[in-house]
Write a structure and sequence with these properties.
Elements lengths: L1 H15 L5 H33 L6 E6 L11 H8 L14 E12 L6 E9 L3 H4 L3 E6 L8 E5 H6 L8 E4 L2 E11 L7 E4 H7 L7 E5 L6 H10 L5 E5 H45 L1 H9 L4 H31 L3 E2 L6 E2 L4 H27 L11
Parallel strand pairs: 3-8, 5-7
Antiparallel strand pairs: 1-9, 1-10, 2-3, 2-9, 4-7, 5-8, 6-7, 11-12
Length: 387
């Protein structure tokens, strides 16, 4: 109890004298605000990218790939396609055929409108029933490609971001000129997607297998029964996942990269802010040496003095964290970004702000330890010195 009474008494004195040392206090708050603001704003990229990727995902849409592979490495034979078309629980289209989309991926080059930089993204070969599988596709100009022709349908983000996707534009792909015949929006997605006839793609690139099969189920409740039907078919060696699971899996590398960059930059800035807070606290302790020595001569313990300094450091970090999170929300929430050709908006959420506060408390704790030890070890004779 004596320790707690001493601790709160010293902490109350420390906080009441904040205005007398405003310069050092502001140094701590601003340093923490910069570190937290940088961390929160960069982590907001990962949150925004994940939300964008999952925006149109539906649990009644399934993805099938070769067992143990991802989309680009998958090789699905035509015999397996035939077997999938005969599986139960798949929804039928307006023509009575199963809504099953065959897909093949081919990398194509684009040149950004603003910077002129080159970037590669997949040309997606699909079957024409993609509009039944993804009813969120809405053509704003032109039409879907025709089977057997060298035609492309591009999403509107392609038109905005890259040159050469205007209506009627010709793009050379693998030595053949392809014509852009349509522009479309795809739900809330803001990604550049280019469709072409999958069989024309396979013929041009001399391939005989598909990368993925996408199937729409009669309902999301049919998911487990559909998986069992695939597993029970001895001719199929495919992994089955729902569309949300597939997007989540494909998003992991980008999410890991964004989080690593965020934490790397945040850690560097946190180290700088911590050192700045430590220097400011050292200056505060040195200016109050006689006061701390007097407290010790009056019976206050060194542990209570040290704990009050650490607690003060952590409390001063809180307004810095709130300020940094507020600035991140003000300047970066809703900001558009497109690293690696993937477009999304940054999203600053309350959990990110809470993470920023925890991060700031850690900086305050580390920054206050050494100055608190110095304050606790001030010699008692210092109290007798006359300035």
């Amino acid at each position: 109890m004596d320790f707690l009474r001493q601790f709160f008494a010293i902490l109350r004195v420390n906080l009441s004298s904040v205005t007398a040392r405003l310069g050092a206090v502001l140094t701590i708050i601003i340093g923490v605000a910069c570190a937290v603001g940088a961390l929160v704003s960069m982590l907001a990229m990962g949150i925004g990218a994940h939300r964008q990727a999952m925006a149109d995902a539906r649990p009644d849409r399934m993805q099938l790939v070769t067992a143990g592979t991802r989309g680009f490495q998958s090789n699905i034979s035509r015999d397996e396609v035939t077997a999938v078309l005969d599986l139960p629980f798949i929804r039928k289209g307006v023509d009575g055929a199963p809504i099953v989309v065959l897909e093949a991926f081919v990398p194509v080059e684009g040149r950004r409108r603003v910077t002129g930089n080159r970037i590669y993204f997949p040309l997606l070969g699909v079957t024409p029933n993609i509009t039944e599988y993804a009813p969120e596709i809405h053509f704003t100009e032109g039409r879907m490609f025709h089977r057997g022709l060298y035609e492309l349908a591009a999403s509107n983000p392609c038109v905005r971001q890259f040159v050469g996707f205007e209506m009627g534009a010709h793009r050379p792909i693998h030595g053949v000129d392809w014509t852009v015949v349509g522009h479309f929006d795809q739900g809330t997605g803001q990604q550049c997607v280019v469709f072409a006839d999958v069989d024309t793609i396979l013929s041009l690139f001399k391939r005989s297998s598909y990368n993925m099969i996408a199937a729409m189920l009669q309902s999301a409740q049919d998911d487990p029964r559909f998986r069992r039907a695939v597993e029970a078919n001895p001719t199929l060696h495919l992994d089955v996942r729902s569309e949300p699971e597939g997007i989540e899996d494909a998003f992991k590398p980008l999410n890991a990269l964004l989080n690593f960059a965020s934490l790397f930059v945040g850690t560097i800035m946190a180290a700088g802010a911590t050192l700045g807070a430590m220097n400011s606290l050292y200056a505060i302790v040195d200016a109050r040496r006689q006061e701390f020595a007097t407290l010790r001569s009056l019976g206050f313990g060194g542990a209570a003095i040290a704990s009050s300094i650490v607690c003060e450091s952590m409390l001063l970090a809180v307004p810095g964290a709130l300020l940094g999170a507020a600035l991140a929300w003000l300047f970066f929430n809703g900001l558009s970004a497109s690293p690696f050709g993937f477009s999304f908006q940054l999203v600053v959420t309350p959990p990110l702000a809470l993470l920023g506060i925890v991060w700031a408390l850690g900086m305050g704790l580390l920054g206050g330890i050494l100055p608190s030890i110095r304050a606790a070890r001030v010699p008692l004779t210092t109290a007798l010195r006359v300035n």
